[in-house]
Amino acid sequence: MNDLAQKLAAVIDPTRISVDAAGLDDLSWDALSEGRIHPRHRPPLAAPLCAVTPVSTDEVQRVVRFANAERVPIVPFGGGSGLMGGALSIQPSIVVDLRSMNRLLEIDTTSRSARAQAGLVLESLDKELNQAGYILGHDPWTVPVATVGGAISTNSVGYRAGIYGSMGEQVLALTAVLPNGEILSTRAVSKHSAGIHLNSLLIGGEGCFGIITEATLRIFSQPETRLIGGYGFPSFEVGYAAIQKIFQQRLRPAMLDFGDDQEKHEAGAILYLVFEGNAALVTVEEKLAAARV
């Protein structure tokens, strides 16, 4: 480990290289729980050789080129809140901890977009957008922990994805360091007339096709109002039929949560709906939905 770290110190500030065993152990696992792992397919784990905390795309590029030259695997690490094991170290590797790349670089109100480094925590980004009258349309339960790059790499879905879409659907442009050390930068244009949509190679890729270092995201005006409603049904089937009526009317709730967990409530099923946005439209949508349930 120390030999590798000494060599790595030639390409990145040695103060941002760690070989601390406890710290490396924390970076070798994400939020994948034991209950999600098949007992016959538990992944083998290996302690990382070292961890680096770059602060720029250029430094990430230098680390990737170094790893290629040394033939050492790389594991990108964001907030560590992933549930699918994408950040697990299954071989001795260099962990690229992106959490020091946590700056909001630009808010463009004309194009309704924001450009941020990959390590910026979603909650911090949303708070800064709020000060400008905007919101981030992505709100998973891990908002205080998850990072921009991690949410894109897993194509994370938040509570209000019904109206804003998944994290990947909010991406306008990306900057990433590819496995060969080249830097890919896509343009923040919403329509492509021809060719491959390069953003799609990285969205949901779990870092396999490149390490995302910056992203330009679509942002949304703060909603004028938000209406929340809960509805009970005698059975799951009756509730599901009501949901179909809502969608047949082309209504788009910001959030729809439906289930029949008898441990939490009496027999039957419960539907929760959230509508948000323009006050006049939200009021009409909520009334139309209520009339169909």
Low-confidence stretches: none
Number of strands: 14
**Which CATH architecture of the largest domain would you pick?**
2-Layer Sandwich
> Class of the largest domain in CATH?
Alpha Beta
Specify Rg, calculated over alpha carbons.
22 Å
CATH topology of the largest domain: Uridine Diphospho-n-acetylenolpyruvylglucosamine Reductase, domain 3
Q: Name the overall outline.
A: globular
Helix content: 25-40%
Which secondary-structure class do the elements indicate? alpha+beta
Q: What is shown here, in short?
A:
The chain is built from 9 helices and 14 strands. It is of the alpha+beta class.
Topology:
Layout: H1 2-8, E1 17-18, H2 21-26, E2 50-52, H3 57-70, E3 74-77, E4 94-97, E5 104-108, E6 113-117, H4 122-131, E7 134-135, H5 148-153, H6 161-164, E8 171-177, E9 183-185, H7 199-202, E10 211-218, E11 220-221, E12 225-233, H8 236-248, E13 255-259, E14 269-277, H9 279-292
Q: Can you describe what's shown?
A:
This protein has 293 residues and is of the alpha+beta class. The protein has three domains: 2-99, Uridine Diphospho-n-acetylenolpyruvylglucosamine Reductase, domain 2 (2-Layer Sandwich), CATH 3.30.43.10; 100-221, Uridine Diphospho-n-acetylenolpyruvylglucosamine Reductase, domain 3, CATH 3.30.465; 225-292, Alpha-Beta Plaits, CATH 3.30.70. It contains nine helices and 14 strands. The strands form four sheets. A five-stranded antiparallel β-sheet has the order 5-6-10-8-9. Strands 1-2-4-3 form a four-stranded mixed β-sheet, covered by helices on one side. The model has no long low-confidence stretch (mean pLDDT 89).
